[in-house]
Amino acid sequence: MSWLLWALWVAVLPWLLRSGAGSRLGHPGPAWLRWLGGAGWLALALVGAVLWVGGSERLLAGSLAFFGFLLALLALWGGDLLWAARFRLGWVAALALWVGSGATLLLGLPPSSLALAGLLGVFGAQAIGLMGNLEARARLLWLWQQTRGWMVLLALSVLIRIPVPLWPEGFALVSLMQMSLIGLAAILWGWEKVGPRILLMGGAAFFLGLGVELLGSRSGFPFGHYSYASAPPPTLLGVPLIVPLGWFGMVLAAHGLALGRPWLTGLLVVAWDLGLEALMPSQGYWVWQDPHPLWYGAPLQNYLAWFAMGATLSWMYLRLGQGLLLGGGLAWAYRLEGLFLPMGLALFGLWPAALMCGVAMNALAWWGVRSAAWFSRDSREVAP
Question: At residue 308, what are phi and psi to the nearest 5 degrees?
Fold first, then answer.
């Protein structure tokens, strides 16, 4: 099948390049087209990952997961530009399917080869079309100029999650790397805003989180009765290292998303924990032994304590680093977690937690941003 697909690309390459440089792929559209396209292709990638975990045919599942992710990136880059040329690009995909069907019959390939051929055709057409478009190339240049070190670390924290469905036994290592990257991104981002003070705030949050987890796991206060006895390494005084790292990086991201409002930061952190209390015990990080469970073994006091911890850390960030509210770039760590944590819960079959956590995290994130915009607008209207 490979030589037939190469012949296809050679035949359509000049046409695709003309399409990319021409007006049909040259007029920017509304930004929501990019976000909608990215979400749609990510949903396809999730379907592929679910099929892979469920033991479905590997070529089909792998093709959906791999190309769904790549096509999501293309959509976020230039989905509005691609929409203008959707019919032409659709014909290219149809041609790829035709070639793939011929190869399937002639070479005796499995039917799932059609999915690979079609997705390869869609990806190739979109990638070549965008690379030949002036507006798309200008966006890449702008992105290169605006990229900071913390952005690269945040992107890496997303990319390393991809192997989890293919390598479930590596969950502990991937999770530690992800949270470490978020913590490093938080330090670099905070350094741009408040300088060396971010080290003080990061250290305070880390050790406060460690201390409250030591107290909680040994006394039952303030979270309830649970144990870290079976937690995977590395641990610090018996507490998984990922936990105090999360108290720093993710709460700082929620603080930025909440624009420094401690009560909203607390709610955002509780929404995050709705997913963690289902996922992390299933991976052996902690075991609940509380006699009054409310949600996946965790009692009500656990969520009250998470709210209090989130609000307290947010109050500390507000007092020590006012400059952290000047630009909320790190808030993307929370937004991305609101996307990928529910996907991970779904992959592990924890559907109630996936739905509850996904709705809560994203609804609170959206409401927080909108309420801040309304407050800012009202303040300008009443200003003398």
Answer: -65, -40
